[in-house]
Amino acid sequence: MQLGFVSAILAELTLEQVLAFAADRGFSCVELMCWPVGRAERKYAGVTHVDVDGLTRARADEILAACERHGVAISGLGYYPNMLDPDPSVAEPAAAHFRKVVESAPLLGVQTVNGFVGRDWARTIDDNWPRFLATWKPLVRLAEERGVRIGIENCPMLFTRDEWPGGKNLFTTPAVWRRAFADLDSPAIGLNYDPSHFVLQDMDPLAPLAEFRDRLFHVHAKDVKIDRAALDEVGRFEFPLRWHQPRIPGYGEIDWGRFMGELQRVGYDGPVCIEVEDDTFGRSLEGRQRAVAVARNVLAPYFG
Amino acid sequence: MQLGFVSAILAELTLEQVLAFAADRGFSCVELMCWPVGRAERKYAGVTHVDVDGLTRARADEILAACERHGVAISGLGYYPNMLDPDPSVAEPAAAHFRKVVESAPLLGVQTVNGFVGRDWARTIDDNWPRFLATWKPLVRLAEERGVRIGIENCPMLFTRDEWPGGKNLFTTPAVWRRAFADLDSPAIGLNYDPSHFVLQDMDPLAPLAEFRDRLFHVHAKDVKIDRAALDEVGRFEFPLRWHQPRIPGYGEIDWGRFMGELQRVGYDGPVCIEVEDDTFGRSLEGRQRAVAVARNVLAPYFG
Amino acid sequence: MQLGFVSAILAELTLEQVLAFAADRGFSCVELMCWPVGRAERKYAGVTHVDVDGLTRARADEILAACERHGVAISGLGYYPNMLDPDPSVAEPAAAHFRKVVESAPLLGVQTVNGFVGRDWARTIDDNWPRFLATWKPLVRLAEERGVRIGIENCPMLFTRDEWPGGKNLFTTPAVWRRAFADLDSPAIGLNYDPSHFVLQDMDPLAPLAEFRDRLFHVHAKDVKIDRAALDEVGRFEFPLRWHQPRIPGYGEIDWGRFMGELQRVGYDGPVCIEVEDDTFGRSLEGRQRAVAVARNVLAPYFG
Amino acid sequence: MQLGFVSAILAELTLEQVLAFAADRGFSCVELMCWPVGRAERKYAGVTHVDVDGLTRARADEILAACERHGVAISGLGYYPNMLDPDPSVAEPAAAHFRKVVESAPLLGVQTVNGFVGRDWARTIDDNWPRFLATWKPLVRLAEERGVRIGIENCPMLFTRDEWPGGKNLFTTPAVWRRAFADLDSPAIGLNYDPSHFVLQDMDPLAPLAEFRDRLFHVHAKDVKIDRAALDEVGRFEFPLRWHQPRIPGYGEIDWGRFMGELQRVGYDGPVCIEVEDDTFGRSLEGRQRAVAVARNVLAPYFG
Amino acid sequence: MQLGFVSAILAELTLEQVLAFAADRGFSCVELMCWPVGRAERKYAGVTHVDVDGLTRARADEILAACERHGVAISGLGYYPNMLDPDPSVAEPAAAHFRKVVESAPLLGVQTVNGFVGRDWARTIDDNWPRFLATWKPLVRLAEERGVRIGIENCPMLFTRDEWPGGKNLFTTPAVWRRAFADLDSPAIGLNYDPSHFVLQDMDPLAPLAEFRDRLFHVHAKDVKIDRAALDEVGRFEFPLRWHQPRIPGYGEIDWGRFMGELQRVGYDGPVCIEVEDDTFGRSLEGRQRAVAVARNVLAPYFG
Amino acid sequence: MQLGFVSAILAELTLEQVLAFAADRGFSCVELMCWPVGRAERKYAGVTHVDVDGLTRARADEILAACERHGVAISGLGYYPNMLDPDPSVAEPAAAHFRKVVESAPLLGVQTVNGFVGRDWARTIDDNWPRFLATWKPLVRLAEERGVRIGIENCPMLFTRDEWPGGKNLFTTPAVWRRAFADLDSPAIGLNYDPSHFVLQDMDPLAPLAEFRDRLFHVHAKDVKIDRAALDEVGRFEFPLRWHQPRIPGYGEIDWGRFMGELQRVGYDGPVCIEVEDDTFGRSLEGRQRAVAVARNVLAPYFG
Known about the structure:
The structure is a homohexamer.
Chain A: E1 2-6, H1 15-24, E2 29-33, H2 57-70, E3 73-78, H3 88-104, E4 112-115, H4 125-146, E5 149-153, H5 174-184, E6 189-193, H6 196-200, H7 208-211, E7 216-221, E8 223-226, H8 228-234, E9 244-247, H9 256-265, E10 271-274, H10 285-299
């Protein structure tokens, strides 16, 4: 396994600066964000550390040279839009850009592209299903052709009122995964697994690792704290932001020794990238840098 | 406190038979269902043990005589429709019939009428609020005038797809209660508290009793079993029927000694009515009668 | 379900007295012991409340008349020898007598015969298997022909040094049951399930009920207390009698509300017979009678 | 074991009424209070159901006849003063009256007299010790001579400011008991064990039963609820009344099944008397009667 | 946050040596002890790393130069006497010396002075209150004038018989803090918070951090192990030294990940100073140095 | 305490390479395996990093020089055969070779020799005892004479069918240790304590440390994961390999902070050597090296 972080947490920095920071703090990889330039539609979104629009061989080589110079690998390319947004003017450009990210990965020698499958949040899973398949079958075929694996993060994207009730990403539970893997029928689609989302949904964050070991393409290391007093006031069916708080690994509900031990046991050997949405370190670049340093200290012992 | 049951569980029996069964099994009270005759719109609904349409003094006296003959009191009148259904042809007759139930209570010497406040299940709590107040202010005023208390059950009414995502009853959490009690500003509105609904929502079923002691008008004794394996498959945000099973007291998650002890501690001295939605005893009348007998055995020791 | 007890606990009493005691204490059934007359080879064995040697229609009618007179049913016939004892002079008479018990059941209108499958305690499960099948296939065929079901108790019979290391009964775990049910391939073989034996083996006593619901022919209600301090001294691999103590339901490790609730959930509708090996009430008849009375009080509420 | 109650909870009733109530509610014994007439110095004290001042054979026979008439035994005589009060005008009459209670017990055929050893609450255990021995050695000798056993309740008598910091009874822990039993060196001194006092002191209420089985002369059945929120505010070193609430068995922290099972296991065969200091049933006679009825329902199943 | 230690643990070393050790082991700050020279009245007391008696600008500059040379900051000045000792010859010099410490802090550019408020241990909190206010109001005013904050440690100072029953420091619980902060009414008085003291008092060591976030001036990192077996012998009301053992962070009851995460969440950004009273490393200087090294390893990851 | 590892995990490496690896990874000691050359009879056995057959002063000096060159000490010599094998051709050479290991230790300046006492796995502890004493008394005398301590590992050596039922090492529990220490009556025999074996036997791995502190000669750091689902299938009496998996410290059931804290508390000051039987890192040399690195990271903080 390789310890890295998600480049979105250093949105203010250039790619070069991101790689320098990673090297300086002893990280061996980074997941690079590939949002379209200039379109930040929500928090943590809209970061462009690799601009895949018209990515050339030359630019790709520059990027790879920078990586080599800093001794930092690219764990994956990340782009997390809602391709199943009911508004086609949101969904269609998202799918088009995601294609570009998939197509760019081989140029950069990157095996994994991460994202969400999206969801029409006002509709049930069943009601989303036909459009989900229609959208994703071609993307999965494209990935197969290009030798790329797509890792879908298991985030419900259900935090605020405008995402209520269904959230903006279908790919949140083993029940959904099984159905999707069966219907898409491709080795190119798998998981960018983040255990904190299972805590949010009151599910065991270790349980699915064994069954889905062959679908574990990428892992996000993020944690969450459940506020029991708040939960007693509003219940689990309320917007989760009222009763949970994103934290870094070490400050949340997950036992990271057990989690890393289970990753090891099921044979996972890929990247583990820290994600920082923990506001307790402050919303500044410096706060996020301190946060990622603490998280690294908590996780680094398990990387030998 | 008085131990009773909800008459809906003996839908096949006449009022006389219900009272005879209650007496025979040592119950001291029954909550009598008052649905409009002939309109059973969902499971457990549509039972009419008291027909409030044109209830006369004479009929009321007959009912009271039967109660006296069997030594069984009426703990409350129950009618649980969705007065906030987006379809006015559902909502309006519901409110009209609820008025009749409130108006009938004094005729029967009954202090408490139980129900739901309803909800447009596709809209958020905030979006439901104006209509909730518009509907309920007059009902609460009516109750005040008639010396009746309305006990709203804290059930989310969110079990199946057609109730997804918001359920058909707003009155599910302390946060909602506080807001409603403040806005309605009346001693005539309170709770028909059922602890199982808090387990369903991952909330502490004892915590609210102290704060809301003055609003505890009626109590339902029902329990629920959480299926952790199922929850690990689909998460808390899925329809609850996939990961919970209604059970009788004694066979679920609630510690009834602690619950009864807390009711005692906060000074509750009203009825505690067993509700049976536990299919494990079979869906027959005889099964429900066995279920209520076991539940009685579990709870009776706490009634001295 | 019907609440009863195992007649072995009243070894000093005649059948008539056993039935009178059962009736007096409100039990609805009794499992009657059918050991050969005069051959008590170990504690709790050797009790003969029904002598199946040459049982005639006339004697059977007398027994049934006594049952009817007292209003107490026979839950099953019990005979628990070691038919796989390495000494043929033990094993062969045991099998021969077990045949007689099976053959007698229809005379008494009894559907279930309970026992152990036995084991050569010095050999592994695999090494016992061929002889197990050779012994049990004919017995199971006999049971099928006679319309009788054989309920094997899941007791390891591993308590003292002479039973070490393997115990005298193979039928102790789901892994063994599955293999046996597959190899014997008959609906006539099932379980006389006693949850305390799973506690002894550090297994969840509720877990197997759902999978084996169709094999639950009879249930024993016994409990056990684990002595953690003793266990810390000698470990689980020592003779269990050093670190556990048989207790009645209510005084041991099992949550009987959960157990009875799970029996109900999986649809079990047969007898639940209390077994008393709890020496804390004294080894006298009177002590065992007090013990069975306390156990009844603990379990009776779940029988409606 | 015999189920009874402490007569102090029915202070308003005459002895005859107490016995009638006990019989009516199915109790087999009562601990009768023997305070001097007219001197109620604190809550729950000062009750005189047997006036030992000048108790005659004739009066004793009347009492015994009343007991026989109602079928209720006297489990013990109770008098709980502070014989080690620093004020001799408190301590000396207390000791003198205690002597009378001991001397009266044989007249009533009662084996056990219950009380406190007392304490100068402002001094440490060590500083109290010499006076404790000087006071108690003669009392214990007297008890031996009269064939009476003295059961000391393990209550710290530390609830309010005037009892702070040491409380008014030394006999609260196994460490003290061992020292006292060694120094007094008599089989006539033992325990009137109340498990709730161990919960108050953050001690395991079952742990001492096995070691002190020969000193268990009498048992009080009372429970207590710890208020964790209050404890987090003031800590365990504050007056306990700020963070605990006396409750009846079933509504507190103790698992009574485990407690009764352990009493049974260690061979205790004496009285278990319910004590009601649970204000949640109201401070009226009727409230205490309801409380004792609920407690009886919780405990009665364990009495066979 | 800055990781440091309390200089009292290196009593044998000079200030220069203390700073050198701190720098060598990677600590960024030290709390320097300021006891009057030569007056060590109890264990861990009497250490003088800064002599405030007649502290001159020149000596202050020397100290600051040493700090700068080693790259180690002064987290606070520490002096922990009992200013409320009933003996004026103890209390008055203590208060006088504390004034000097407060007055010296600005010379050293130090913002925080730590201590105890003291207590007459034989009297209740209420009885101490008037003298507490009389003593502390002027001290707090002085601190305000000098721009210094006083951090009171929440230690009960209740370990041995001569400190029984009340201990030598009132400032032990949120209930006391709220009252004191209200009565002293000054932003210059706050907490030097040590979570181990809450474990000792059976209180949640994380609970008060959120409410008192603005009063958190300094933090001590110490832990404690509760000896449950000893507690079962003597109870929580006995001297705590009989049932607890001071330990370093990592070897006690506190989950330091949760504690540090909560400090972070409430916005604490000050020093966290390790205190070593853990005798298991030996009572030598070398033992304490090893202990502080282990504690640093346990805590350092949380400092990024 | 000193952190090291067991050289058997680097079976492919020469002694020189083992020491180099230890030095490179910051270990301060290694337990060197001393199996007879060429006789690997089971997994993890048969490793010869020191060949004690004809070990000369010169060779010993070479070894010591290598140790000094790398700055790595020898924590102990290890040889773990079954000297109580029922086959004399196994048992006798084992005992003879063990003598040689004991005799070699002084040459290498090593104080501790580690091994098993062995067992005839088909016989009870009692039945093994006479032969155990006959074999071990002379070995213990030899050790005394040579100034060597023998540390017996508490491993049951009961993993596979050929070791069933008793395992190949008697020295597994405090009950056995006490008896052995009493019968052998020598300070030269003690423990090479591995906490994971207590988890396997369902025993508290910390509990024995205090009592046996004087017998703690060496410690192995290994962990184990219990597979509850497998245990529910086969029970604790089945071969342990069906329900447990060896893991490195940090990935198993043991809380290493508590374990190290307790070692510290009881005054243990010897070596703690990591043992790797954790297959999840792969069965290659490189896998074992990564495993030992992760285990070191988990344990190193406790070594100051």
